[in-house]
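Problem: given the chain below (51 residues), write out its structure.
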Amino acid sequence: MLRLTLLWLLCLPTLAPSRPPNVVLIISDDQGWTDFGFMGHKDIKTPHLDQ
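Solution.
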């Protein structure tokens, strides 16, 4: 019974529908964490990052 449970737990991640991860890596020089529209900056517009 333990082997069946372990086999089921090992197969569980493969049964779930896989989605691509939502990861955005931004590399820039001299940019603060508030310099984006989604962080509340009033002058800088970042519509694609705000999605």
